[in-house]
Design a protein that fits this description.
This protein is an alpha/beta fold. Strands 3-2-1-4-5 form a five-stranded mixed beta sheet, sandwiched between helices. Helix 2 packs across helix 6.
Length: 228
């Protein structure tokens, strides 16, 4: 990996009630940035939610994996999301994971780092003073867009596994895990049959959040953002 590096970080699946949250970090040099831009790497949310959108993300995710010198993805299951969200620390979870992925990939003080979330990621400047915490970073920085695509593609795969797991019992599972009519129908049917929510459901969704009494770098509640 030659020249100055730019690392981008983004997540997918922060707000759904069903399925994991995924966080990705991608490190690019200038050549990779130009290459990915020419191949159409942009904000994954702009592709939509249907089968064609999933296929487009899958194709671009493969290109990112092939051309990005550095990349890493972490899938965070519903239980871990619950442990943090019940304490009002979902933002802290995202900061911890991004910090760990940056360290894993070898980010250092001479690298540019761009994270999507101006308030959420500003505390990470204690570790990376050069870090840029911005809003809508995936529409402005190819490194963040690449991370967005990897995260969303991994979440697409995770949700497809959940849908396949329950298809024989409840039919086709639609809605992407967000709390819409299709997801409500599935959750109601599952609870009626089994007396509880499925293990992939976030029990903390919509629950009252109680901030931790010990506020540190990762568990700061000053910039908390609720799931949507």
């Amino acid at each position: 990996m030659s020249g100055k590096r730019t690392f981008g970080a983004d997540e997918a699946g922060r707000g759904p009630i069903l399925g994991p949250m995924v966080i990705a970090v991608v490190g690019l040099d200038r050549g990779a940035s130009i290459s990915l831009s020419k191949r159409g790497v942009c904000d994954s949310k702009g592709f939509g939610a249907g089968a064609s959108a999933r296929q487009k993300r899958r194709e671009l995710a493969q290109i990112v994996r092939e051309r990005a010198p550095l990349h890493s993805v972490r899938v965070i299951d519903a239980d871990e999301v619950d442990r943090y969200t019940f304490r009002g620390l979902l933002n802290a979870l995202e900061r911890e994971v991004v910090h760990d992925l940056l360290v894993e990939l070898g980010a250092n003080p001479v690298d540019r780092i761009v994270c999507d979330g101006a308030n959420m990621f500003a505390p990470l400047r204690k570790f990376f003073p050069q870090l840029e915490a911005v809003n809508q970073g995936e529409s402005k920085h190819v490194s963040v867009a690449a991370a967005s695509i990897l995260a969303k593609d991994a979440r697409d795969d995770a949700f497809a596994e959940i849908a396949a797991r329950y298809e024989g019992e409840f039919g086709t599972l639609r809605g992407g895990g967000y709390l819409n009519a299709a997801t409500r129908t599935f959750l109601d049917a599952y609870q009626d049959k089994h007396g509880a929510l499925p293990p992939e459901a976030r029990k903390s969704w919509g629950a009252q959040k109680v901030p931790s009494p010990q506020v540190g770098l990762f568990d700061s509640t000053s910039s908390r953002r609720e799931p949507t």
